[in-house]
Amino acid sequence: MRGSVKPLSVHICIATERHDWPHTIEDEEGSLAQAIGKAGLAMLSELQKIDRVVLSNVSLPLPNRTNAYTGYEVYILYNAWCKLENVQKEDAEHVLLQYALSKPVKPASYTATPMGFRAVVLVCSHMRRDARCGKTAPILLEALEEGLRERDMFYDKDEGSEDGKVLVTTVSHIGGHRYAGNVLVYRKTDTGTVETLWLGRIMPNDIPWVIEYTVLQGRVKRSAVRGGVQW
């Protein structure tokens, strides 16, 4: 299991308010994932020169749509630590140029805001890719929320600030379903860098040490680690 995660250049997460998605998220007609996928194909020769671009859907709530706010919310968890608001499908190329290729671009139509979270935890729940992740995710989510609430660290949008809190959400296919439950931990270190720790075969009784050691200290059990990187 160790070494089963390939290096990445960027992890782009799109809020969809759902816990399951089509087998391939880029195939969903009219979605932002489809738009980013098409933009990626158009610049494939450039993207092939860098480590992989990871594009995911997550179950975070959709924004309240208004005449002025018609887009999506997108979370860049690697190689930035920010939230993009009001992203339009027409912005797909801009997002890849800015965050995957780090190329100079014109000012964006969307707003980018640094996140205050102490950590972000993603749990794969993509049932249509593999039932193992779909079945384990709800149990792990419940255990994570319970453990983080005991420490007053669980982020609830209705309860206040992001600062020092841990955001927990489900995520679409991230590879390695045979390692379900798949858990990704992105955490801010004391020096301001961000660690990415990919865990596999996590069970509910593992969640206390995942919170205590991985989320809070950046430590892992050798038997559960798939890979990781710091930037």
From TrEMBL:
Gene3D superfamilies: Glutaredoxin
PANTHER family: ACTIN PATCHES DISTAL PROTEIN 1
Protein name (Swiss-Prot/TrEMBL): Sucraseferredoxin-like protein
